[in-house]
From TrEMBL, chain A:
Name this polypeptide is given: Sugar ABC transporter permease
Upper taxonomic lineage: Bacteria, Pseudomonadati, Pseudomonadota, Alphaproteobacteria, Hyphomicrobiales
Cell compartments where the protein resides: Cell membrane
Segments passing through the bilayer: 12-37, 69-94, 106-123, 155-178, 208-228, 248-281
PANTHER family noted in UniProt: ABC TRANSPORTER PERMEASE PROTEIN (PTHR30193)
CDD domains: TM_PBP2 (cd06261)
Membrane topology per record: Multi-pass membrane protein
Species of origin: Shinella sedimenti
Length: 290, 274
């Protein structure tokens, strides 16, 4: 179908996208790599010198470093756990016949469209605030002490907020996948006497595996970089209790003016993301080929 | 008998679903309610019935100048989306209709650029923006968001274009249609729904992007994300005002989102789940 002529044209049409993304990928990354070997502080920009691996050593020996990586993994893992399990549950529920399904769907999908700073501030001030939050009101009504969420459980609070934002996404995708499940298969399994649990394990779950993979992949991309939620709630604290790698790098770069140190952190973040990406892409590639 | 059971089952499912939906929706609902309270009412404890005052909405505009960040959000989200479509439509078109052995690799590579953590390139981008005078400008941010969302736009368009049967193009060519005719009269009408969905989803993503929009702006070009984030520093008690600003910031996108549920699934899963 394609002649030489159209093939050349096709390449020409592809060029701007590929070119832009290539520049976008290579130039800043190369700069980050270069800066990571430099002693470069924005407060003293005249004094830039080569320091070899000093920045990496500095970042590596920072006690906040391992904590931030651990926090990053906890956020990703915690949110994935809540959203995938919760998403499957809610999707199964929404797949049942009911009254007002359209409105229920709209309510459940809504948090996904709320911008992160709004989500975080609403949760911080109106839901989790120890004095005026709704949870504190409930606690007091039940005769308990209100919990100071962001002081006592800073990381958990952030996981809850982020999970709230992503639960709709997981639900919606899993529900869409669920609805494409063959009704006849379900009926056949029911007639053969398969109970709810075995139908779920042997029929529904395998059918959902592709959608679950996609949910994990897409969410991981975004969850590795959780930033605004931390900025407006705990600001990484108390101490480094809720600082993830993204937030630590931001702190080093724009609060510490340490270009070299932040760049070394950036390279570490890229390596971490790549390790995760390789596993995910392999799993997704396998699943998408079907 | 069977009917009675199914009605009961439906009632149980309905009750369970409504309870869960109301819990999930509650923070948004309560924000809207609080935005209609006075400041003293807002901190008086749990109360679902506001006095329906609009004073907080007025304060948000008169004290904080809501309109400016709102316009910045509109310009940046819409601008970056249109820019991305201009670049992506030809690319997606060529990959969908003249696929080569490398097409799949190129698509996967584009997706992988989304894997790069934004924060890893914060320093160079910040310095480039500073040196070119792009910090806190709408143009800088628009270009930035175009680049960030380009892979998703290409992917989405690709999955839509691929569903347009190639035979139609061949038939048009046999009838003597030039490439121009092909694109304008045959392809475009069939591609419009896909392009529209892509546009909608990308505006949502751009509107809510909260890393670059906060870091690369201060006052002039700050969109709503940065505007709302600035409320995090304590300014006394301001629950109602915060709620009014939040409601205004999310309302347009919330409504757009409700209409684009289906496209959302497809777009964000790169066509893997339909």
């Amino acid at each position: 179908m394609a002649t030489e002529n159209t093939r050349g044209l096709a390449r020409l049409m592809l060029a701007p996208s590929v070119g832009l993304l290539l520049i976008w990928m290579i130039v800043p990354l190369a700069m980050t790599l270069w800066f990571s070997f430099q002693n470069y502080n924005l407060l003293n920009p005249a004094n830039v010198s080569w320091t070899g691996l000093f920045n990496y050593k500095f970042f590596y020996t920072d006690p906040a470093f391992f904590q931030s990586i651990w926090n990053t993994l906890l956020i990703v893992g915690g949110v994935l756990l809540i959203t995938v399990i919760g998403g499957i549950g809610i999707a199964l529920l929404l797949d049942q016949p009911m009254w007002g399904q359209g409105i229920v769907r709209i309510m459940i999908i809504s948090p996904f469209f709320v911008m992160p700073p709004v989500a975080a501030l609403v949760w911080k001030n109106m839901i989790m605030h120890p004095g005026y939050g709704v949870l504190a009101d409930i606690n007091r009504a039940l005769g308990f002490q209100p919990i100071d969420w962001f002081a006592q459980f800073p990381l958990l609070s952030i996981i809850i907020i982020v999970a709230w934002q992503w639960l709709p996404f997981a639900t919606l995708i899993l529900l869409t996948a669920l609805q494409s499940l063959d009704g006849e298969q379900k009926e056949a399994a029911e007639m053969d006497g398969a109970g709810f649990v075995s139908r779920f394990v042997y029929l529904t779950l395998p059918h959902l595996s592709r959608a679950i993979t996609v949910v994990i992949l897409i969410q991981t991309i975004f969850l590795l970089g959780v930033y605004a939620e931390i900025l407006v709630t705990t600001n990484g604290g108390p101490g480094y209790a809720s600082t993830n790698l993204a937030f630590l790098i931001y702190r080093t770069a724009l609060l510490g003016y340490d270009v070299g140190g932040a760049s070394a952190g950036g390279i570490i973040a890229v390596i971490l993301a790549n390790i995760i990406a390789i596993f995910l892409m392999r799993a997704v590639g396998k699943n998408l080929d079907k | 008998m069977a009917r009675a059971v199914s009605t009961r089952r439906m009632a149980v499912a309905t009750a369970a679903a409504w309870i869960i939906a109301l819990i999930i929706f509650f923070p948004i609902l309560y924000t809207i309610i609080t935005s209609l309270k006075t400041e003293t009412e807002a901190i008086k404890g749990f109360n679902l019935i506001p006095s329906f005052t609009l004073e907080s909405y007025v304060t948000v505009q008169t004290q904080s100048g809501y309109l400016k960040p709102f316009m910045n959000s509109v310009v940046i989200a819409v601008g970056s989306t249109i820019l991305a479509l201009f670049v992506a439509i030809p690319a997606a078109w060529s990959m969908a209709f003249s696929p080569t052995r490398r097409t799949k690799d190129i698509l996967m590579w584009m997706l992988s650029t989304k894997m790069m953590p934004a924060v890893a390139v914060l320093v160079p981008i910040y310095l480039i923006f500073r040196d070119f005078g792009l910090l806190d400008t709408r143009i800088g941010l628009t270009v930035m968001l175009t680049l960030i969302n380009l892979p998703i736009v290409v992917w989405m368009l690709y999955t839509y274009f691929r569903e347009i049967p190639g035979e139609i193009l061949e038939a048009a060519r046999m009838d003597g249609a030039s490439l121009f005719d092909e694109i304008v009269h045959v392809l475009t009408p069939m591609a419009v729904p896909g392009i529209a969905s892509t546009l909608l989803l990308n505006i949502i993503l751009a509107w809510n992007e909260s890393f670059w929009t906060i870091r690369l702006t201060t006052t002039n070009a700050a969109p709503l994300t940065a505007f709302i984030a600035s409320f995090s520093s304590p300014q006394g008690l301001f629950w109602a005002k915060l709620s009014a600003a939040s409601t205004l910031a999310i309302a347009p996108i919330l409504i757009m989102g409700w209409f684009s549920q289906k496209q959302l699934v497809r777009g964000l899963t790169f066509g893997a789940v339909k």
